[in-house]
Write a structure and sequence with these properties.
mainly beta, Methylamine Dehydrogenase, Chain H, 44 strands, 47% strand
Amino acid sequence: TQEAWGIKSSPALRNEAIAALSLPGIEFLPALGGDLPAPTEELSVTDDSGRRRAVVRHLPGGRADAIDIVSVPDGKVLHELKQDHRITCLDWSGELLIVGGKSVRLVQVWDTTTGQRLHRFGGHNADLEAVSFRPGGQEFISIARDGMLKVWHAGLGAELLRMTGLPEHAGPVAWSDNGTVLRVRRWDGSVIDGFRFEWPTFLTIVGPGAPEPRSENITSLHLDASGKVAATVDEKVCRLWSLGEGREVARFPKLDIEWMSAALAPEALWLCSWNVGLRRLPLSADSLPITTTLQPTKVGNGPLLVASSRDGKFLALTMNDPQPTNDRVLVVSTSDFSVKNLPQQDPYCAAFSPDGNLLVTGSFRSPGAALHSLKSGTPRSLDHPGLVLGALFTDDGRTLWLWGDHAITRWNTASWKSESVQTGQTPLGFTVSPDGTLAASATRRAVILHRTQDLAEIARLELPAAVGEVGMPTLTFSQDGHHLAIHVADGAVISWDLPELRTELRKIGMDWD
């Protein structure tokens, strides 16, 4: 509360406040009243798209059930999820199905695309009465007749918190539209109780349901301009996430033993990989899929996507040739798929200037960067200590940032003079906001916000232990600079709404300005 934090701000106290504000909270509201849906005979639930339905079917012998994942248009059974016990409740969000049962008293999480069970959670001491996703997130609750309510994160496969010593409750349950109040009936039917939840307003966490590490050391996370949609690439698939809704909205598998790369541009998700050429997925104005069918282009397999221009008119792809002197960066027009080849040995990364006239490229073997004029085609060298593994032009085009294994440098694009901002040990991940006011770096347990003038620390954003290994993460800001996100090694995406975070800190006198 403001009273608790109403003392002079300091970096240490600000970090403690952010950590506290990042935790969910729960309050029991006895005899809240209100309405609940009536119980139904058939146990079934429809997915977010309305195209699939999960239907519980009793197996012979009466001791176990199966869940059929059925295509709604044609009634085709896509998957049969066999259980070793009777099912009492289920719910669905994105590609994750949660299931509760009797006898074994377990909560299960299933991947409805692959038909694989991802988790079996214990801890309840009675048959499950309800499992239910909160609106707008992968968090869900489970209730049994044991006086306990548990809160889980399906995408991370982790228990978040629990409340014990409650009256015995029965399903079904009902959430308020904003997901802050849950209503549930007592077992004897006498009273409808409630629970009030405090979810962090500035923090979104989504995950694939089970660890999905990646072997590639290329950029694996892309945000749309608003920061509300993300594309990630992991060991098996490219996933498109609605961060605003807290769920996976599309998935595109890799072929065996290949690298895949992606780019989110206005009105399209682009994919390219070693074995399949450049493909396009049309997106709506809010960056959600219009179709799930990828459209092929004239650009063949082999190159990897590393950058897109701000207006989405050009893509940059790296091509490593068996003959190193033929290594190059491909600049592809997204209107006619014409290709301009730029020389770059062992190409690794690229960044377009805001006007699309310049492209800077870096190598995974040679120090420094190359600056290419897309109009004249004339390259020049930029002397950066060590490898350049990331680059970004600020929105005004006046500053170029380069970072890599030994240094972070900042360049004035009028004079092309640089200054070393940091040398020596560099962070696991690094990025700069498009307006050039903030930088972010990653450690093994936190994301650090910095002032760009001197990279002084502003705030520390602790990562929950449940997100798993950070590895060599991808950090990125949305184009409007309002959202910062990280994709960690085990596949989770953690996103912060920075204006909302500052609003919460301002209430307790802890903002960083």
